[in-house]
Design brief:
22% of the residues lie in helices and 18% in strands. The protein has 155 residues and is α+β, with helices and mostly antiparallel strands. The structure holds zinc ion.
Length: 155
């Protein structure tokens, strides 16, 4: 998998999954529907959408929901996140919010992030979206993040 350019065909299954997940977004308050999809080191695709709540602070973003689902399925461990797509129908491409950028950084140092709407795409690297991210390296002696995985991403 390459993910080197915004028009790389490797993005197609992620885009399809993200658009499909977006259809399930629960957005009765904002109507702002977001879909996300990621691919793991073993090529497994997981998608998700934003989920709003009447108690507004409890709303969850598509990106974080997707990461949580992948971890819960045993598909994603630190270092295992290979690429991410975020789709909306907004005229302006929708980047991950700050909280999601931090969550994504837990699972990949350099992550290709493709933003897309129905008209255009833009490719970014997570390291550009969140330079100098805080990580386990910042407080774990020896400076390395332990990979405790025994799952499919474990090596
Ligand atoms: Zn977010």
């Amino acid at each position: 998998m390459a993910f080197l350019h915004a028009d790389d065909p490797d993005w197609d299954p992620l885009l399809a999954a993200a658009w499909a997940a977006r259809d399930h977004a629960h957005t009765p308050y904002s109507g702002f529907r977001v879909g996300a999809a990621l691919v793991t080191a073993t090529g497994q695709v997981m998608a998700g959408c934003n989920v709003e709540n009447a108690a507004y602070p409890l709303c969850t973003c598509a990106e974080r929901g997707t990461v949580a689902a992948a971890v819960g399925q045993g598909l994603l461990r630190p270092g295992g996140l290979q690429a991410l797509v975020v789709v909306t129908e907004a005229d302006r491409l929708t980047p991950p919010c700050g909280a999601c950028r931090q969550v994504l950084a837990e699972f990949a140092d350099h992550l290709p992030v493709l933003l897309a709407n129905r008209q255009e795409r833009a490719l970014h690297d997570l390291a550009d979206l969140l330079p100098h991210a805080f990580s386990g390296r910042d407080f774990i002696p020896g400076g390395s993040v332990p990979n405790l995985s025994k799952g499919p991403q474990g090596s």
